[in-house]
Every structure is written in C-alpha cells, then in structure tokens.
Amino acid sequence: MQSPEAGKKRDAAQTPPEHGGLLRVEGLRKRYGGREVVRGVSLELRPGEVLGLLGSNGAGKSTLIKMLAGLVRPDGGQATLGGQSLLGRAGRAARGQIGAVIEGPAFYPQMSGARNLGMLARLRGHPVQRTTEMLAMVGLTAAAQVPFRAYSMGMRQRLALAAAFMHGPAMVILDEPTNGLDPAGQGEIQRLIAELAAGGECGVLLCTHQLHEAAALCHRALVMADGAIVLEQKLAGAPGEEGIARLRAALEGQSMPQPMNGGRGV
Fold it and tell me: Taking all residues of the chain, what is their mean pLDDT, rounded to a whole number?
C-alpha cells in the first residue's frame, strides 16, 4: 500500500503540464556485439516532471541514460532537449543544460565539499555565492569545509545533488540516488529530490529499481525490460493499488506486456 508520506513527497512538485515535451527520445538504439541492449526506446519528459525509469539490472536503463548524457554513442534514433539535438557533436550545447548523477558521486577526495562545488561553479561561470546557496539547500553548511573523503554516503549523495542542480539545468538525470543508503538516509535523499524539483521547469529523469522510490517521487513511471519500455504508469494523483500492482508485475516479469512505443502520456 502506498504511504501518505510517499504522496506528500511526490506532490511537493507541481503537477507537470500534459503537453510540451522537454526531452523527446525517438527510436533510440544501442548494440554491444550481437546483443541489442536498448531496442528502439521512445519517451517524453515534460517540464517540471519527475519521470521514473524502472527495471531490473540488465534492463538497459544505465545504457539509455548514458546515451542521453553523452557518455555512450547510440547506434540509431533521435533525442532532443528543448528542440535541440542531444546526440553527437551537435548535442554539446544541449548536454550542457543537463545535470547528472550517474554511477555515484565523483569528487576530489582531499578537497572539501565547498571547494569541490566551488571548482564546478567557476567552470560553469557561476558566482561563488551559488556554492554557499547550494550547500545550504542540501543541508551541508556545517560540513562545507570537511574533506569529501570524510563524508558519509548520505552526505556524498547530497553534495552530488547540489552539483547536479547548481547551474539551473533544464533536465537532471539521477541514477539510483539512494543506492547503498539505509532507510533513513533514503528518506532524506528522497525528500531532498522532491524539494529541489518542486516549483520549477526542470525535468527529472529518475533511474531506479525500487518501486517505493518511484511511487514516492514520480509523476509517471516507465518500466524497461530487455532493452525496451514495456509499461507506462501514471503515479501523480494516487495511482491506486491496481497501478502499483501493474508496475510490480512488470518489474518482476509477470504477465509482461508487449513493448510499447515510449511515453505518449497516460
């Protein structure tokens, strides 16, 4: 059963508009050797929306988000952000509008949280006070001068979120942001994501294998299996037990629907 706390977290973000895609992906494909690991994926992310991308290990989630972030070259398909291509050399400008936390936080261990963020701010042309604002926003003001190597897992995730949202991105990609945290730490990071995503035009693509996390944070959820999107489920406005059951069945491979053609709205 969905908890009241889950609904509160998700509803902290404004209900996204029904039309006007921020991110549009059409027929994206990737093959490694003889295996096609992403098979013609199409989806849409709307401004102000938190979109969940669920699936078990090996479903193709990580490869998909790495293609969107410019870390892996696709073999076919199109992806645009705000009407600009995200792919190849032509997509460099659009990819600059993306904040991402993929495969865990990556910072200089000997430098403090403030210095790590400050270096990113300078590279992106932001004033120093932006670093102070973001550290306060994620609750790290007291630990600002502590070396990153001394941070707990939860503190590292908080700093990574600050870095991802610092430059006011059009879209943020989060890859398993609560992985490795205890239940209390997971709840803290989920509340923080909801707060950072609330009230703005930034779209968030949340990659997770945890159904409860998607139910807590997302307006919609897509389930990937064997490289394809097999289910899309609306979560905003209480999806009900049937909707949650459909997501759970798809994740567990029970009564699997046929692959569908991405996020066209529910």
Answer: 84
